[in-house]
Design brief:
Bound molecules: flavin mononucleotide
Number of strands: 12
Number of helices: 5
Number of domains: 1
GO molecular function: FMN binding; riboflavin reductase (NADPH) activity
CATH architecture: Roll
Structural class: alpha+beta
Radius of gyration: 18 Å
Largest sheet: 7 strands, antiparallel
EC number: 1.16.8.1
Distance between the termini: 54 Å
Pfam families: Flavin_Reduct
CATH superfamily: Electron Transport, Fmn-binding Protein, Chain A
Shape: globular
Organism: Rhizobium paranaense
CATH class: Mainly Beta
CATH topology: Pnp Oxidase, Chain A
Helix content: 10-25%
Enzyme class: oxidoreductase
């Protein structure tokens, strides 16, 4: 059973996912809402896995679970908006994480949404919103990394940010 022996060796070398998640729980992340639209459909997902890639051309990346069939719209639409959430957006973050079991329309009713250039829903009172066209999608095991070129931004006066750390919300 060489195959089994090989598999056991590989399993031993692979980081235990629970241990990895425990370590990651110490990592503070800005809570963000990523949104998209395609035809009459729209979707938003609460995420922390997003960051800036470059300022020229302005580029950001987001990581979305590809095991969730409802995320397919993000891989097809060619557009997304990344909305950085503030301390006052905790209910909205819960709504778009599925925690409160709301329908899509009910989730979007927890905030006020506009559009900028691409047509992706932009949260009107986001700390900052980045309207993007998808330039590349890279599959990375359970998640797809979506790179977007920023075509419009919207931001207002500085307000406290909503963070996620130690498996709970915090504000900064
Ligand atoms: C604080 C926080 C951060 C999250 N970060 C991500 C993320 O970076 N990528 C991701 O795919 N899902 C992330 N999720 C999970 C999604 O929000 C959740 O799976 C999804 O919204 C479920 O939606 P559904 O009920 O419509 O399937 C995060 C959830 C929370 C509460």
């Amino acid at each position: 059973m060489t195959k089994t022996r090989e598999a056991i060796v590989l399993d031993k070398q692979r980081m235990d996912p629970v241990l990895y998640r425990d370590a990651m729980s110490r990592y503070a992340g800005h809570v963000q809402l990523v949104t998209t639209a395609l035809g009459n459909e729209r979707r938003g997902v609460t995420i922390t896995a997003a960051c800036s890639v470059s300022d020229n051309p302005a580029t950001i990346l987001i990581c979305l679970n590809n095991n969730n069939a409802k995320n397919e719209i993000f891989f097809k639409s060619g557009i997304f908006a990344l909305n950085a959430l503030g301390a006052h957006h905790q209910a909205l973050a819960d709504a778009f994480s599925g925690k409160t079991n709301l329908t899509t329309d009910e989730r979007f009713a927890t905030g006020k949404f506009d559009t900028l250039v691409t047509g992706a829903p932009v949260l009107a009172d986001a700390l900052a919103a980045f309207d993007c066209r998808v330039i590349e999608i890279k599959r990375a095991s359970t998640h797809n990394i979506i790179f977007g070129e920023v075509v419009a931004v919207h931001f207002d006066e500085t307000k406290p940010a909503l963070l996620y750390m130690n498996r709970d919300y915090h504000t900064l």
